[in-house]
Amino acid sequence: MSAFDVAALARAARAAQPAVAALDGTARGALIRAMARCIRDAQASILAANAEDLARAQAAGQGAALRDRLRLDPARIEAIARALEEIAAQPEVLGQVTRRETRPNGLVVERVRIPLGLVAMIYEARPNVTAEAAALCLKAGNAVLLRGGSEARASNAALAHCLHAALREAGLPDAAVGVITDPAREHVLALLRLEELVDLAIPRGGEGLIRFVAEHARVPVIKHYKGVCHLYVDAGADLDSALALLIDGKTSRPAVCNAIETLLVHAAIAPAFLPRAIAALRARGVEVRGCEHTRGYDAGIRPAGEDDYAAEFLDLILAVRVVDDLDAALAHIARYGSDHTEVIVTRDEAAAARFVAGTRSAAVMVNASSRFNDGGELGLGAEIGISTTRLHAYGPMGAEALTIERYVVRGSGQVRHPR
Amino acid sequence: MSAFDVAALARAARAAQPAVAALDGTARGALIRAMARCIRDAQASILAANAEDLARAQAAGQGAALRDRLRLDPARIEAIARALEEIAAQPEVLGQVTRRETRPNGLVVERVRIPLGLVAMIYEARPNVTAEAAALCLKAGNAVLLRGGSEARASNAALAHCLHAALREAGLPDAAVGVITDPAREHVLALLRLEELVDLAIPRGGEGLIRFVAEHARVPVIKHYKGVCHLYVDAGADLDSALALLIDGKTSRPAVCNAIETLLVHAAIAPAFLPRAIAALRARGVEVRGCEHTRGYDAGIRPAGEDDYAAEFLDLILAVRVVDDLDAALAHIARYGSDHTEVIVTRDEAAAARFVAGTRSAAVMVNASSRFNDGGELGLGAEIGISTTRLHAYGPMGAEALTIERYVVRGSGQVRHPR
Q1: Given an 8 Å threshold on Cβ–Cβ distance, is A214 in contact with B214?
Q2: Residue B11 backbone dihedrals phi, psi, to 5 degrees
């Protein structure tokens, strides 16, 4: 597969896109449900392909974390099929009129949602992204180019086989879901330079992959590097609630981007809260790294340095800092945060409002877990990613984030300079 | 001014931005009105600075077109002041709740408009951009970095003096409107790589400048290269209306991006329409370049080649082509268009609907002039530019396009994995 082939794949996808957009919402839903059906029916061949990928990963000495991301089983395949059905069932976004105004000269100005066009997904081990990203792109009338990780190539090919079968059944060309099967990085490079063809690239995976994409892209990129999410316990917070939100945020799934990485505690509540929190964290196997004040409660706590406050641990490790007040918490977040998710636990509405206004992250939670920053939990259905790029979409991206609003103007012969 | 200085300017702007966003809408409006007032009061010194720029341009042998874009006079200064007042009077965009939903678990999920952050404007000769871009950015709570053309440096400095005076009066640091005064291109390069500081770069000017920015940017860019706008006259169109829309689109201001560059005519109406159109165009000094069919009406018409159909003439030149039907018109637009503005003149609603659905341009006009694709005309107030980038904003960009929606979630202690 040469750079030329990648361009040919992109041209074919772009040529197929209007046919996707021309389907009505019902037909696009049926297409995505047919993909789900085919994936369920093909369970045996998908698992066989996945076993191949897993064996290769094992032989290559890949770690357990990667192999877990790579692994499919009947439950995970069923989860993929269900995610597709949920995407199919989401309300239609195309053709939505988001604004309508009649101008003084009688022009009727509408803003109408249309597809972005061609979306390129560049991702790593998880094979579910192949099906879910394709379904979300199609839902919003787009064509898509998929470039999954080489470690998942057999699984991705087996899933793509189902996607293509459903496309053909609906009378659409395979090219609407283009799959780059050759793992060489030069194809990613070629893809990232197809300014005239690719409307958006979304990288998903480790920070290395995302930096590579950002570094080399000429096409627009929406990304997030990492989630350094903070939980701030305000003076006068409900201690039980603060503890529950901390434990949920840190331990319910430590390896995901919306997990809590740093706990900030108002000095006034630290003596009541921190000893309980430290004990509860330790009971769940969490390593605490703290500021001097924090270490005053437990000499066994390792000191937290600059690196710890900037870290996305993705593990059972938590940085802790006692702050003088809410302003100090905001200053800490401004310095170390990653614009992903911040939480305040408070009973003081004015403090909540100051925290919301004083942070610029994609999601801010008042008395709710950081783990809710997720497309499904926030009501978008599935998500294609979480953006911390402050452009186009900020936070979880569903089908609507894969559209753009254009102007449709209807008149009766109006000219700008009547003569 | 070294690359380091540009980074320092960007850091200072970014540090000043929260103070801009913290002003309420009334205070931000007052700030922008104060800028307008100061510009009116400083008319004499702005004109003196402009005379300096004009003399330098003349001495450097710059053409009349550039000198016209550069020139200020009392009427143009008054127009700048009025544009600022209009921006100040536009409805507030910050804090707008665009969606609110209560989830089954009781979480209240809102999407709320916040500023983008720091916007970099990179533009050429027109000094009015200095004031208008700054005002639009501030209106939406952003800080801005301005890098105008070196040919306008004295005029831009005189205008920036007024902007800074108004900022100081409002208790804000000058840095909220950063001005890059050194003309060296290396500063633009440095600016375009400040990924951690600059949220959006908007280039405005000739295609060369825009390609330079797109080529070198690591920061997100919204742009449009050119406007190859089409007017399609459908079979059965009202001939008077078609002629009026053609003349307005081509001749009311030929050098702007929303002017018509190519006329497409349904073969069935060509014999009735084209002879009239050719005569009317010629009477207004428009050079017609046509397909063979078109040249059949007038042997003096020069043949139109591929280059003519792809051209943004920005001049009194028009490419003309007779097409077999609406589908052929859509195919022509798909091949040669620039996603800017397309017009259909028709009395057939089904044809209008097919034209709207079959084009992907930022603005599509049914029986209205292409010249209405403009922020003011479409109801946005002022515009910072017209985007043909299919991301974030598509078409004219007003204050709203300089914001992003974030998630604000309010709960009562909800966790994702209750235990």
Answers
A1: no
A2: -65, -40
